[in-house]
Amino acid sequence: MLLIDCPWCGPRAEVEFRYGGQAHIAYPEDPAALTDQEWADFLFMRDNPKGEFHERWFHTAGCRRWFDVVRDTATYVLRPDPEHDA
Ligand SMILES: [Zn+2]
After folding, report:
1. Could you list which residues have their CB under 5 Å from ion ligand 1?
2. Of 45, 49, 57, 55, which is closest to residue 73 (Cα–Cα)?
3. Dist. CA 68 → ligand 1 center (Å)
4. Ligand 1 centre and the CA of 5: distance in Å?
5. N or C, which end of the chain is more exposed by having fewer CB within 10 Å?
6. Spatial separation of the C-alpha atoms in residues 1 and 69, rounded to whole Å
7. Count of other CB atoms within 10 angstroms of residue 10
8. pLDDT tens digits along 19-59
């Protein structure tokens, strides 16, 4: 089980959180202008690196706030996301 460090609550067990997928995915400015393929890519296509991955977590059992972390997908080491803007 992961120990996730919520920026507001401190370290908590993974079961208190919900995974939110890849971070820094910008919502399209004009979704209606996208082709079906572009819309599908926005909805479903995500990076799958071996190594550092920016991702979102939601502290469901705590402060109920979203935050970003960087997780190493090979070691599961988590650290705060330097691009975090919350
Ligand atoms: Zn929290």
Report:
1. 6, 8-9, 59, 62-63
2. 49
3. 12
4. 8
5. N
6. 16
7. 9
8. 999 999 999 999 999 999 999 999 999 999 999 999 999 99
CA dihedral 52, 64, 66, 15 (to 10 degrees): 20
pTM summary value = 0.85
User: How many Å lie between the centroid of ligand 1 and the Cα of residue 36?
Assistant: 37
Residue 23 CA to ligand 1 center (angstroms) comes to 17
Find out whether 81 and 69 touch, Cβ atoms under 8 Å.
Answer: yes
Give dist(CA 72, CA 46) in Å, integer: 16
User: SS3 string of 63-82?
Assistant: CCCEEEEEEECCCCCEEECC
